[in-house]
User: What shape does this take?
Amino acid sequence: MARFRPHRMYPGALLAQEACSYQGATEILARIGGRLAVIIHSDRDCSNVVPKTGQRIQGELPYKFLCTNLKEDELVTGQGGAKLRRALQLVVEAWQPALTVVLSTCPTVMIGDNLRNIAKKAGRDLGVRVEAELTHGLRPVSPAEVVDKVFALLARASQPSGVDVSRRVNLVGFDLRGEELAEIRDGLGELGLTLNAVLGTDTHLDEFMRAADAALSIQPGPNLLVGYGEMARSEWQQRIVEVPIPAGVQASDAFWRIIAAAAGAEGQQVLGADRQQAEQAIEQFRSDQQGKLQPLRCAYNIGSVRSFDLRRIALEELGDLPMLQELGFACDLLIQGPQDPPNQRRTAQVLADLQCDLVFGLFPAPGNLVQFLTPGRYQLLYGADFLRDQTSQAGVALLNHRATGLGYRQMAGNVEKLMAALSGDFYRIFKADRHLPVDPRVQVQLRRPSEHLAVQQGTEAAIG
Amino acid sequence: MDDLTLDDLIIRASSHTPFFGIYLASHAILDAMCMCHASVGCKVKTQEHLVRHDGVQDAHNRRRYSQLIDEDLIQGSTAQLEDEIAAFARRLHSQVVVIDCSTPLSLQVQPLQAVVERSRERTGVDVVHVQARNYQDDLWGGYAATAATLFLRQFEKAAAQGPLPKPKADEVSVLGLPFDRYEGDSTGNVAEVRRMLWGLGLKAKAVFFAGEPYATLGEAIHAGHHLALPWLKPSLPSLRTASARTAGVTLAEPPGLPMGFSGTRQWLLQVAQLTGVDARRAQAFVDAELQAAKPLAELARRSLQGRRFAAFAEAPRLAGLVALLQELGMVPAVLGVSHFRLGGRREVEALLAGPLQQTLPQEVVWLEDPTPHAVAELAHAGPLDPQMDPRKQRPLAGADIVLCSSVEAVQLQAWQGPLVEFGFPSENRHFLLPAPWMGFRGALRLAEQVLQALAVGQNR
Assistant: This one.
């Protein structure tokens, strides 16, 4: 039986997959730029969470990731601490990193090496910044918690420079492409705001050092970056502004409405021309689809990918939904998770709390998704790319949720990608097939949260 | 700790441990499930490294993890492990479950035989635990250990049913074939090895591993001989001991490997000798194969003669590749032996000087289990040292082409010349049709790829 361990923290990412805090920290730190060294205090095996391709092991320093490569005798005889101390000295003397982060893993947590003390003392002796984080996979956490902790760690040393911060804002927790960022910068400019720092998982270390120089911290919400937000409030007296993901026109409108209000420009419209073009793209798509035999129906996938991009996991991964809905898609939510009644009810409640009453189904493992892709029901699955083997079996087009862009200006491109996904001939040539027989223990059940909760209330009333 | 150096802290291509090797081997059985007895982050250590390499069979679909948490280490983790095995063996219609333990579990040295037996009973399918040492071994250690474990398991299962069947003289099994994806290179190797053995009159029904259903491995009990390839080396000592104890199991260790023209010829003749195939038949087969390949090999040689190459791979694959390219007149400039469990420079030189019948030039630049930086440096043009051979100081020692895995390809990003992605992993090159690198057809196919890459000028 799969374990059922809902995250107790971070409402807003309750449906996200659980994560190993060590693996999550490496995944985030791998993309952070700057003179950053990460020492993995572990046996050799755990260093393999870092991919060997894609240039993640090396960074601006000759190596970003290093490993104490503890051997069995070193682990069991308590030599780990001494090895870590020596490793810190070697790395600092060779490369003088701006920041050295030490991460623990399951084996070093099991033997109880005191990373924090070693790092603190080494930092003091060597005169450099060394931060240690107790990370491991023995107590899985929400990916949101990992992001929160790592962002707080990276920004901790930031100090106000003395500049006037009143019109300066930080954008925290969004991973943005260049053109998306340009649009936000323009919008902020129209509101008389200056973008001080953009803190995402691909940000330069120096940008984190500038975090203190802002009055507002704009973050995806609700309830993400809890620790970081507290630090920003107490250390730098920043106001936290939680915004929705600006996917599509209506969500972008809401995004700017909240920022404008926080900036004292309530009601001010921004990016008017871009908004108009986005609306036209939506209208064009809707009119192209009119007259087609079937209404557009999309299977919107949640919980299948373990992401550390808050843009992806905020709002229970529902952030892109408004865009699909305004394009005319009727969406069902296909959520990866255990099918037992407590989880059905919990999921229904999480969705109801977000005022989402779309039909949802829980599928227990990626390989069972195909059972939910009933022939003819969906034209599109919007979700994780790795589910392609499932959509291929069902003959349903897949649009990777990472392919679409945020903001008004990306809307035309999003429409193009949707059209391309929907218009291919591939599944007319290659028919649907199933690789494995249907698993009879998987219940293909699609219901609205309100129906789930009504059934529950009815049962309770009957018992009462 | 005073003797610790930065080099000791580097994450290398060889940092993969048996934990990954066992997963890779189970991926190579079509209906196997790899049950990682591990915590949540460990799943990344497996699927992450295969997901872009294998474009056909998704890396995550037949791998589960037992969701180990802190309290399991204190209270015991076997109940959770058994529940996961039972649930997912049924769900995935697995025919064999391979238990693969992460480091915290190997620190605990927890015996799993009882779990294995209960799980077999509960699921009705085969369940094995592959023992491996994550601290000492590499991925090929794990791969070989899985092959050896599953090979011996076939005899154990059969013996439990009654006397073992009489081995058939015309059947062999193949042990230690590296199969890492369901694409034309791996499937092509299986087909080519089988084709050549059939040319000797031998049927190779069980191949460890071939990307085929688990049931095919059961055919091993009928084989008269079991041919060990060099990738089985880490488990050979234990397998020799175990085989010696099992009546009717004859482990055959033909020297060398079926790569290159001469290497394949020698290997087949050795196989024939070890399995009792008529020497004239074997000679006639290899002669016919070489005769058919000759005009194509000539074509390749005309273009490749004198071209210099750099190559990186684990020891046996590297030796076979060097042998082939030298046969075609190419000259090795840089040779990098990745990983360590299958050997280093000494093993490559021994294979070349012995069964592959090749002599290496003196001036080859060697790297053994190199750091990413050591590989990268070869592609950087720097100021020349007057004390050293200037030829060796040019990018990649004057190579015209590089053959390496995606790992070295990333490290060699400063190299702008032709590059053939070869070995594990190959994340950018994929094969839709047979593209073996073993056997006579593999030699031609590999030569063809080098020709094409040089013709294009740059293939990155």
